[in-house]
Amino acid sequence: METNFDERYTLPGVETIDDSPEKIAAKMARIRELAEREDAVILAHNYMRAEVQEVADLIGDSLGLSQAAAETESSTIVFCGVHFMAETAAILSPDKRVLLPTLRGGCSLAEAITLRELRSMKAEHPDAVVVAYVNTSAEIKAEVDYCCTSANAAKVVNAIDADTEIIFLPDMYLAQVVRMQTGRDNIIAYPGYCHVHRMIDPEDVVMLMRERPGIELLLHPECGCVSSCMQKAVDGTLPQDQVYFLSTEGMLRHIEASDAQEFAVGTEVGILHRLRKEFPDRSFVPVNPEAECAFMKTITLDSIIATLEIGGPVIRVAPETAALARRSIDRMLAVGR
Ligand code: 13P
Ligand code: SF4
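Above: the input record for the complex with iron/sulfur cluster. Below: its predicted structure, written as tokens.
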């Protein structure tokens, strides 16, 4: 089976916004005023533009934002992230209004697998338990047993009987990390990937780590270089005790607990704003400064103002699909981090 999302998906470019600091401050004040009026909580993923992170009530990874969406008391959620994340919020909070500032925020990974492909994998492995990464559509989540995020994938897999075969989808690199972390060899992976994390290259990693001894490497498990970096950590090309596979929020927790001064960050570059703000005495180098998710960057201060002013686009999931998808998400939330 071959993944062919490149043919299915048109990737947008990243729009440059050149607002003055005064203009940014005025837009942020307008957003806070509208959020108050609309009883809205603003949730933002770690890859958001700096000014979007600054105006949000809460910034986090997929798991943290799902938990926040399940627990919030506000009647409206403005989801500054990509479509599948807002869908997850709508599934968890069916009585709330979930606004996604722009419908252009898709995800190449979530688009990779089709329902037809999933059904054919299930038919080939009828006794397998299916675990889907949260980067999937609601209709895929409705057809699987468990959902997981990069923060809890190994924990979710470990909750399944060791002798049971697992279909893991749609990210083949995360599947490799889960194999390593759980020691299981009965994981069948769908061959999908994120086009942004695939750009994070093992040669860049090796060069950075050679140039800067003592630097710790924080790699998101979606990175195209995960298996090669694992191999290099085992054969000594990379210092094993300085290589970590972490979700975006996991990176923040790791830095807090680490004594290192310098970190090579292998993920989407939007997270650097938060890292530099929360850890001003440490330094951060992106493994690939061009690893930018254009989907995440479709959300701007202007689009947040517009969504709050017009009350749309509202993200809705059909009740039958939502009820089925909710089971796999609730199983994940029960496992936790
Ligand atoms: P996290 O769950 O680590 O935030 O990752 C989400 C994502 O889309 C990574 O590309
Ligand atoms: Fe999807 Fe990749 Fe963007 Fe994450 S970085 S939202 S996986 S396209």
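Notes for the reader.
The longest helix spans residues 21-37.
The chain has 15 helices and twelve strands.
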